[in-house]
Amino acid sequence: MSSAAAASDWVHLTGEERVLWAGMPSLYPAIPTFAVAFVLSIFGVWLFRDGSLPLLPSWFALVLVPFGALAAVWAYLSRWSTRYVFTTKAIYEKRGVLSRTVTQIRFDRIQNTAFEQSLVERTLSYGDIEVYTAGTGGVNLSLRDVPDPKRVNALVTTRLGETARARRSQRSTDEPSTA
Q1: Domain membership flag for residue 179
Q2: C-alpha distances in Å from residue 19, one per residue of 11, 13, 85, 149
Q3: Which parts of the sequence belong to the YdbS-like PH domain (predicted)?
């Protein structure tokens, strides 16, 4: 995915801010939904052709087909419409199929991060990243199903270190000299 193109319509970069990473949730967790949707649609067509619904009209079985298709489309669209962008100054998350919610957390507000992966997630190389900010007791941003979360979390950790060094450097130049 092109980082600049992916974020151009909803992330407004400031002066020297640049995109470090952009991505979207992995499609692997949606595979069971796709499988169920496919089976539901095929089952509906099979019931219609077989005509073995004794108390219902045969066309009623075809109702399963659009339900299966809608489940698959919704699973795909909800992942496709979720985007994550890490810049030199902040982490952004955009969610929403019909509406849009954009969350931004500046690196100077981030206290800690963590990433989680189950055995299946490790095997398929995706996982969750939790972002904790200063002054709150819980998770402020939870990025779900991020591809290669170890690498992405390392990128955030590196950026946090750079932000902390820049803050310390700024504080030392702001302190009045006693000499």
Answers
A1: no
A2: 10, 8, 7, 17
A3: 81-153
